[in-house]
Amino acid sequence: MTDFHAIEYAVADRIATITLNRPDRRNGYTVAMAHELAAAFTAADLDDEVRCVVLTGAGKDFCVGADFTDNGFDLGIAPEADGSPWIEPAGRCALRIFDSRKPVIAAIRGAAVGAGSTIVLPADYRIASTDARFGFLFSRRGFVPEGASTWFLPRLVGTGAALDWMLSGRMIDAPEALAKGLVHSLAEPEEVLDRAYELAAELVATTAPVSAALIRQMVYRLSALPSPYDAQRVDSRLIANLPTDPDAIEGVMAFLQRRAPRFPGTVSKDLPDWLPWREPGSAWPSA
Known about the structure:
Layout: E1 7-12, E2 15-20, H1 31-46, E3 52-57, H2 89-98, E4 104-108, E5 111-113, H3 115-118, E6 125-129, E7 133-135, H4 138-141, H5 149-157, H6 159-168, E8 171-173, H7 174-180, E9 185-187, H8 192-206, H9 209-223, H10 228-239, H11 246-256, H12 267-270
Parallel strand pairs: 2-3, 3-4, 4-6, 5-7, 6-9
Antiparallel strand pairs: 1-2, 7-8
């Protein structure tokens, strides 16, 4: 992964680290960064050696939002080469994280404003520094929210808080973000990344990759359905396979034998073919 310029991508101990890498611009978000982030998450998904992804930023700030200097945020609006609809830059990252087959942990220091707030909403965990500040400043710039954040944010913090934060465009400090559920935990700035790696290592050591991929997609895709019956049909079809599923057998045997599990399943080969969300962006069929 040597072609990245706005980000860094590295893999160690089965954890992929994706780092916003423009510290001289406080990791200001650009179209190039959006493309590279989407490519990095795709690389992590395609690599069975990667079991978890940590998303962070170089320097003291995670991301201060769109970089408007030097035409750095020229949207370059044009039809995509394959004829698909144009996707705004924050959405290119946020939706790619939404479709991720690996757990995603966002490790956030300092300012996380605009795109810095919206792209982390689809992460499974958000660990923030005690000096972190979030901001959905769109109303104060004459913009509208990006990155499908009007879908993600109310699910995390409730409609009332989402409306307050987005309509007012005010800054949200770390204690408020924690109290409302935007972040899962706080750490001192120099400890945020270590805390993220500790969590990632635990997920790598104790969870089955196929189960993790299924669970994060089931929560997002099924919780949005109007009826629990549709979700339960998916549950039933998956659970019916447990008696012959190698991961399930290994999980039970490891428990009975009081040892660490060694799950044989891989995301690239063992996700069920019939899942309606196997293709990114696929619509859920009516029941």
